[in-house]
Amino acid sequence: MKLWPNLVCVLVMVIAATSNKVQGGTPYRVLLDTDVDTDDFFALLYLLKLNQSQINLQAITVNTNSWTNAGHAANQIYDILYMMGRDDIDVGVGGDGAILENGTIQSNVGGYLPIIDQGRGTTGPCRYRQAIPVGGGGRLDIDTNMGIRRSFLPQGNRRYSPLRQPTAQQVLIKTISKGPVTVFITGAHTNMGIFLMTNPNLKKNINHIYIMGGGVRSSNPTGCCPKNATSSCQPQQCGDRGNMFTAFRSNPYAEFNFFGDPFAAYQVIHSGIPITLVPLDATNTIPITQEFFKAFEQNQHTYEAQYVFKSLKMARDTWFDDQFFTSYFMWDSFMAGVATSSMLHGEYEENEFAEMEYMNITVITSNEPYGISDGSNAFFDEGKIPKFNLGKNGVHSGHVQTGIRDPFCLRENARGRCKDGYTEEVVGPDSVRVRVATRAKPNRDTTSTLDREYYVHYLDVLNRPQYKGRFNFTTEFPRYKEVLYKPDFKGKKLGKTVVFDMDMSAGDFLALFYLLKVPVEEIYLKAILVTGSGWANAATIDVVYDLLHMMGRDDILVGLGDLFAVNQSYPNGPLVGDCKYSKAIPHGSGGRLDSDTLYGLARDLPRSPRRYTAENSVEFGAPRDTDFPQLRQPLALEVWRSLVKSLDDGSKITILTNGPLTNLANILLSESNASAIIQEVFILGGHVNHQKNEEKGNAINVPSNKYAELNMFLDPLAAKTVFDSSLEVTLIPLHMQRRVYAFPRIIKKLQAKNMTPEAIFTKRLLMRLHRLRRRHHLYRHVDMFSGEILGAIILADDHQKHLNSTFGVEHLKVNAEGMLSKDGEVTFDTYKNKGFKVLQGFDYVSCYNIFSNRLLRQEQSAVIGSFDEQKRLWSSQ
Ligand SMILES: [Ca+2]
Ligand SMILES: [Ca+2]
Fold this sequence. Notes:
Helix content: 25-40%
Family: Belongs to the IUNH family.
Pfam families: IU_nuc_hydro
InterPro entries: Inosine/uridine_hydrolase_dom, Ribo_hydro-like
Strand content: 5-15%
Bound molecules: calcium ion
Oligomer: single chain
Structural class: alpha/beta
Largest sheet: 9 strands, mixed
Number of helices: 29
Radius of gyration: 28 Å
Low-confidence stretches: 5-23
Domain Inosine/uridine-preferring nucleoside hydrolase: 30-367, 498-797
Mean pLDDT: 94
Keywords: Signal
């Protein structure tokens, strides 16, 4: 052991000789790999404020399998960089490459899945990802930064755009091959793990990796019973090493970043590159205290300080209990300080903010006993050669946690036994000596109310006049104004009341445009319900608001539905659950990444003052009122109830569903009067298999399932609830939709001298889908989205006068037995009394005409055509 200090000495000398530290005016080149959680941009903004001749952030890669979804995360990064005047910084996200069964890692693996689950494409299970809540307090709040992102951050020209977006691996290779670089990791390690496995020759250019993550000797201070608590108080994760509040019963050891991809973290830690770890050990000693919060409140002299403080305040105001000031820590933002201070002191040496210690650790990637094969460990598929030349009985060969409720890990009335992702102290050949931050240093000024050195420094840096943010969204334009556009229906006889239920797939937006163009005397669209269990993530609800704003329909209520399919969230922790069905949708290209950004076009829509927000009120069960509780995002059921209340006596509601039937099923299950109030339901979806198995369904990423249509597959139990109800249903099945899969024909029709803004936008979207479809196999399925206009057209085609549509009555049932190969399949049921009206034929040429004519008509046209128009309006004198 005496060898160590000498070895370190030699290492320091070698690194000093080759490092990029400030010598002769050369700054440190830094790459940040981030999951764009709230605390990540606290760190990012801090880094952007440091003296650029010392610390120069060159590139950001986005981690895509953790707290955010790729499209929302990348666009938030672009906006922050635009605010800070740093459009020169490269941003990498995603990639659709595969890891083949023989272990070959293709280029551009996007990190949507942990290495162990990565196969071909970007669909896959959620064994680790499910630890992160999907809705409020989780990805929905982080994707939107609780609503603050779009109310505050300015919008520049950079954005995610399909097939043009540089991937994470491209940016890593470009940045690291240019010369010595220091890497910061503040999310799961997938991007860097894959990079190191595929580019061993570039390792030499990485001087040092600084990591926020892990918990070595940490002892969780949250979830403990207060000293004077009654005997009924059950300690939760109190004293655990880890911090996974959703999963501590199965795994009390892991910290979220390492749990996100333990095998990737192992690759990084064991890479031989010098590592500094800022784990929970240290971050637990630097909470956002009341004193720090107060000092921050009075210290907001820059936009970046305001953005961080607003975010902190919203996090505090919406915290689930009253322990915010002892449970919310400086994680990534503390690491950024410890790292840069260490660098400026010449690596390995002192730093101003944390006490450091060397420890020998490893990252646990599987649980003992090793060498078993219980089907949990995809690196060791039975009968095959282990991937990546892993040793048959080595540390990676044990049971791998299959989910946060893995029965192997849960033990009755005892701590869970799985350690996946644990940064355990070990001795022997599989240990690595790393530098570990153990606690935050106290403030040298002992008279200050801020008792950590870093508190003072962080506020100071964020408020510096140097490298200041240029504007926020409201100050970007001299005449910025928030207006809600609501139509005047006075004197009009409104048509049937319609609710549109959508999963925010591209075609749903086409259908929505169409519904808004049908004269209100025929269709009065009154509310929209969205689900996050289909093609888009919940935060995409903002695109719905923007489209409505464009069309002058800020009067339409928008309700946020369940984010899980029926029975897929866990009973005792409904924020998390399984992705059994939703895993059929790709995360990357052609999937959620594109839906969430409307194929890169969402940002061309004008920005609505209405948006998702975490604002909340006691009235709706929140722990406390936030500043603007009236802005709270209504839930689907609440919208439904208020709509029912507003109905005139005897009038009824017609529903069009364009996604999984989750919302409709929840209405039926919870509202006893629902079927009496619903006039009729038009369901876009279901594959009625007339051709005796010749025509397949479209659950394309579930090869075992041949005949289901996706809207049914994504929530089979919801579909069953609706199919077994007494509702009047008109079904627009898949084989009918397929008749309108022809982009060029619709695009050709969308042509006129005076194009309406909605026709222009629709045409651009269709042209983009068409181009992508021809260019890349991952977009081959996107013509299914043109079929999604059919439900809206049928609904509006009263008396079948234009389409020559014909219907038959079929007695149908849907399979919801829980078998992936069968779920969502629609079959005939001769025992059923009630039949569905099923679309059997229509004139598809008229369909294109009807769609394009409506979009082109000048009536009920957009009131504000685009974001560009809004910018001109807000800039003019
Ligand atoms: Ca993070
Ligand atoms: Ca849809």
